[in-house]
Design goal:
It is a single chain. Among the domains are: about 260 residues, Glycogen Phosphorylase B (Rossmann fold, 3-Layer(aba) Sandwich), CATH 3.40.50; about 190 residues, Rossmann fold, CATH 3.40.50. Helix content is about 40%, strand content about 10%. The chain has 36 helices and 27 strands. Pathway: Glycan biosynthesis; sucrose biosynthesis; sucrose from D-fructose 6-phosphate and UDP-alpha-D-glucose: step 1/2. Homodimer or homotetramer.
């Protein structure tokens, strides 16, 4: 507003007064003047519009108004708009300060309580709060990035890996992924992450000791995308694999494996994929089990070769990797790429959208919960930069760098600690030849690299320029507001010396027409075009519409040939892979000082860092590098000299070294001579089942707490151990005597009778309805039995009861409902923390507990320390309104087990929502799964890898029970783990009317609405009234029976 002193004075007066918008005096400024209505303009344009980017447009419109009165009124209202914007920003800053203060207090309380539980294990020095020695990453980037500096070192490391045959799973769900001709920039989902995961898969498969790498993604068979994205499998050509030909095999190498899930024939943005995550997990589980068996036949001596790690990329893949890690009991790794909490903070600061609008648009709360779960489950979180750890990851409840050091004592307790490691992305350099020529002469050829015609993309770019020999300033980014391209154009347009010395090239993805782009991308592109017109930059700025991924190296070469500069002016750059690519081609850089470029610059020392909000700083840095040839040459040389720090082999060496440090985990029963994989009906099958039972199962003769969890091993005596062993032997002998007994109609003389009986069912019906009372559950169970009575009697259908009830309560349910334990093949109890099978020999006890299921889910189980924390939390929940102080939450010892701590709730409405309990536990680094169940009258806290839906996946992995052959019965609402029971390959029947307001309230108090993660239209989900005939019809609709 330079040159308009009265406006500046007016603004200062408004801001100094600080009166509210509803001040009566403000109405005096809003007078009706002819046809122009200042009142309407104020309400529609000022009060409801807070977008800073529109201020300049409003200013131009006001200046162009012919009527002096109308112009003055517009200017007045614009001043009010700025004041209102300033007031809102001040309010947002206050809210941010309150959030930070609350987070700080919660963390300090969590640290105190976490340390209090282990004070006996920590010395005074270990309890200190000093931050200086917390980081395992060192003080300098070079110490944080241990690198291979010689061929001899790499060969020595490679020799150590020989003999290993690792199978690694990578997951990246959204976007369009293929090995060649990647359509980077096609949309916001197909960006740098796509290139990174493909290159990582290739590089890992080329490393010694790695046999196979699978990159799992979504299969897209949509008419608006290329057919290649619908191919189920694509083999990636690996580089340098000729050095390890002796390790090659039938299924070795790197592959893109596309799993079908979500809407068919439709390319779906990542925000809409959340309801279909479970479908992907089930499909991926199918693939991994098949491939593990295949690899076992090839290189495993007949035993399955399980993945050594599952690595999720971005929140959606992290959520999937966590579920797969739990289902298979293998280590998980996670890379966030872009983090939800950081994005939420940035969007709230902008003030353009409310928190509800942000969540509606981006499903941000579901994304944040997925990232929190990834922290809970991951053994290693891989980051690109220190800034990502210090400024982004520390926003999460599950990560506190100060608490990390205080919990080192847990390592002595054989517990696994989450580790954040910095491993910058790598790059292939062997094919890159730095450009030594310039526009005044051709490059001299040699025998290895003869001269060749100029690439077509050079012509496409240079046609924009009046003088194509000037140095080129190159920006390579999609048209996204956070990439800050408009500020770059302004800096270039307003700096005449820079315009005289250089050209500007903007590679902004691919486009056919602006109208066909997303609204956000179109807005950025239109702003760029308007700025080009405003500053008359025709002949000085190139912005080609199309380029192929294979053209990108040629674009870098062209910029280097002109002695140009690469710039990344993004507001925040998580890493900045393009900076490394540019340096490898001999281009100095100008980059944002926010994020990864700081670490990259510290290693490469090949350019300048700038404040992305400071337009003049950007112009000065570009001008300095372009004008000072000696500085340009020094930066170029430094980049080429240090670029080896970011090669793929070194990245993979660090990556594989970290994986080697993880405690090996895989399905434990494979250690025994198991008959799971045998499909034969030989008489030996039953004997092998009995042998397997003796190793893997324990009898539970009553409904009390089961032992053997390992939490209280120090309290167990040798006598107790001998007694338990005797019980197991007795149980096995009893089982062997009655192995063919079953209350249903089966051939008792058939050798196909195996344990457990669910292995021989054609279909499995899972009753997972969360009723208020046992009587209601019994009534619904009878109606489901009636609907399939014929199939139930002939034994083709088996039943599983999946519930939050303890085993003692299930005994009461069976007795009161008139059911036999053998009416069910299995019982998933305590919200998925215990798994029992029914036995035909009722004399020795009706239930057998799967001991190996406990070993499958015990990862990071907090044991006694967790129990103490929960008891302390429950004592703090009181009813302050009551006359006498009354505890609302009390420990239910009789309903608890070694892997489930149960609490009774007297007044569900007075208990904090489940998200608050999860937050309390995460802040103290307690990794578990808190579930509000039975209409909020009970709280079950179980291992983080346990749930009712995960128990079904365990049955598939353990016994080969196909998920597609399962039908899950649920109500219209349920416990807070209800969401996991609907998605997936299994079919679901929702019983209408089976719901309560209390259940609905449980989900209303979660971090995100249930609608964000429920599949709205799925052929595998039907609704039916709670009547046997209607249930039968719904099953026919699902294709379970012929109508």
């Amino acid at each position: 507003m330079a040159g308009n002193d009265w406006i500046n004075s007016y603004l200062e007066a408004i801001l100094d007064v600080g009166a509210g918008l509803d001040d009566k005096k403000s109405s005096l400024l809003l007078r009706e003047r002819g046809r122009f209505s200042p009142t309407r303009y104020f309400v529609e344009e000022v009060v409801s519009g807070f977008d800073e980017t529109d201020l300049y447009r409003s200013w131009v419109r006001a200046q162009a108004t012919r009527s002096p009165q109308e112009r003055n009124t517009r200017l007045e209202n614009m001043c009010w708009r700025i004041w209102n914007l300033a007031r809102q920003k001040k309010q947002l800053e206050g809210e941010l300060a309150q959030r930070n203060a609350k987070r700080r207090l919660e963390r300090e309380r969590g640290r105190r309580e976490a340390v209090a539980d282990m004070s006996e294990d920590l010395s005074e020095g270990e309890k200190g709060d000093a931050v200086g020695d917390l980081s395992a990453h060192g003080d300098s980037v070079r110490s944080r990035l241990p690198r291979i500096n010689s061929v001899d070192t790499m060969e020595a490391w490679a020799n150590q890996q020989k003999g290993k045959k690792l199978y690694i799973i990578l997951i990246s769900l959204h976007g369009l992924i293929r090995g060649d001709n990647m359509e980077l920039g096609r949309d916001s989902d197909t960006g740098g992450q796509v290139k990174y995961v493909v290159e990582l898969a290739r590089a890992l498969a080329s490393m010694p000791g790695v046999y196979r790498v699978d990159l799992l993604t979504r299969q897209v068979s949509a008419p608006d995308v290329d057919w290649s994205y619908g191919e189920p499998t694509e083999m990636l050509t690996t580089r340098n694999s000729e050095d390890f030909l002796d390790e090659m095999g039938e299924s070795s190498g790197a592959y893109i494996v596309r799993i079908p899930f979500g809407p068919k024939d439709k390319y779906t943005p990542k925000e809409l994929l959340w309801p279909h995550i479970h479908e992907f997990v089930d499909g991926a589980l199918n693939h991994i089990i098949r491939m593990s068996k295949s690899l076992g036949e090839q290189i495993g001596g007949g035993k399955p070769v399980w993945p050594v790690a599952i690595h999720g990329h971005y929140a959606d893949a992290g959520d999937s990797a966590a579920l797969l890690s739990g289902a298979l009991n293998v280590p998980m790794l996670f890379t966030g790429h872009s983090l939800g909490r950081d994005k939420l903070e940035q969007l709230l600061k902008q003030g353009r959208l409310t928190r509800d609008e942000i969540n509606s648009t981006y499903k941000i709360m579901r994304r944040i919960e997925a990232e929190e779960l990834s922290i809970d489950v991951s053994e290693i979180v891989i980051t690109s930069t220190r800034q990502e750890i210090e400024e982004q990851w520390r926003l999460y409840d599950g990560f506190d760098p100060i608490l990390e050091r205080k919990l080192r004592a847990r390592i002595r307790r054989n517990e696994s600690l989450l580790e954040h490691v910095i491993i910058p992305p790598g790059m292939e350099f062997h094919h890159i030849v730095p450009q030594d020529g310039d526009m005044d002469g051709e490059i001299e050829g040699n025998e290895d690299h003869p001269t060749s015609p100029d690439p077509s993309i050079w012509t496409e770019i240079m046609r924009f320029f009046t003088n194509s020999r000037k140095p080129m300033i190159l920006a390579l980014a999609r048209p996204d507001p956070k990439k800050n391209i408009t500020t770059l154009v302004k800096a270039f347009g307003e700096c005449r010396p820079l315009r005289e010395l250089a050209n500007l090239t903007l590679i902004m993805g691919n486009r056919d027409g602006i109208d066909e782009m997303s609204s956000t991308s179109a807005s950025v592109l239109l702003s760029v075009l308007k700025l080009i017109d405003k500053y008359d930059l025709y002949g000085q700025v190139a912005y080609p519409k199309h380029h192929k991924q294979s053209d990108v190296p040629d674009i870098y070469r062209l910029a280097a040939k002109t002695k140009g500069v690469f710039i990344n002016p993004a507001f925040i750059e998580p890493f900045g892979l393009t900076l490394i690519e540019a340096a490898a081609h001999g281009l100095p850089m100008v980059a944002t000082k926010n994020g990864g470029p700081v670490d990259i610059h510290r290693v490469l020392d090949n350019g300048l860092l700038v404040d992305p909000h400071d337009q003049q700083s950007i112009a000065d840095a570009l001008l300095k590098l372009v004008a000072e040839k000696q500085l340009w040459a020094k930066c170029r040389q430094n980049g080429l000299k240090n670029i080896h720090h970011f090669s793929w082999p070194e990245h993979c060496r660090a990556y594989l070294s970290k994986i080697a440090g993880c405690k090996p985990r895989h399905p434990q029963w494979q250690k025994s001579d198991d008959a799971v994989n045998s499909d034969s009906d030989s008489p030996g099958d039953s004997l092998r089942d009995i042998q397997d039972l003796s190793l893997n199962l324990r009898f539970s003769l009553d409904g009390e707490r089961t032992g053997g969890s390992g939490n209280d091993s120090s309290q167990g005596s040798e006598g107790n151990a001998a007694d338990k062993k005797s019980k197991i032997e007795t149980a096995v002998l009893a089982w062997s005597r009655g192995v063919g007994k079953d209350t249903r109609k089966v051939d008792h003389n058939s050798s196909s009778v195996k344990f457990p009986s669910l292995r021989r069912r054609k279909q499995i019906f899972v009753i997972a309805v969360d009723f208020d009372t046992i009587a209601s559950l019994a009534e619904a169970t009878r109606k489901i039995f009636e609907a399939v009575e014929k199939e139930r009697v002939d034994g083709s259908i088996g039943f599983i009861l999946s519930t939050s009830l303890a085993i003692s309560e299930i005994r009461s349910f069976l007795a009161s409902g008139g059911f036999s334990p053998c009416d069910f093949d299995a019982f998933i109890c305590n919200s998925g923390s215990d798994l029992y099978y029914s036995t035909p020999n009722l004399e020795d006890g009706p239930f057998v507990i799967d001991f190996y299921y406990h070993s499958h889910i015990e990862y990071r189980w907090g044991g006694e320390g967790l129990r103490k924390t929960l008891v302390r939390w429950s004592s703090s929940i009181i009813d302050k309104k009551a006359e006498d102080v009354e505890r609302i939450v009390t420990s239910a010892e009789q309903l608890s087990s070694d892997y489930c701590y149960a609490f009774a709730v007297k007044k569900p409405g007075s208990v904090p929502p489940v998200k608050e309990l999860r937050k309390v536990l995460r802040i103290q680094a307690l990794r578990c799964h808190a579930i509000y169940c039975q209409n909020g009258t009970r709280i079950n806290v179980i291992p983080v890898l346990a749930s009712r839906s995960q128990a079904l996946r365990y049955l598939y992995v353990r016994w080969g029970v196909e998920l597609a052959n399962m039908v899950v019965f649920v109500g219209e609402c349920g416990d807070t783990d209800y969401e996991g029971l609907l998605g997936g390959l299994h079919k679901s029947v929702i019983l209408k009317g089976v719901c309560s307001s209390a259940c609905s309230q449980l989900h209303a108090n979660q971090s995100y609405p249930l609608s964000d993660i429920m599949p709205s239209e799925s052929p595998n989900v039907v609704q039916a009234p709670e009547e046997s005939s209607e249930i039968r019809s719904s099953l026919e609709q699902l294709g379970c029976f012929k109508s």
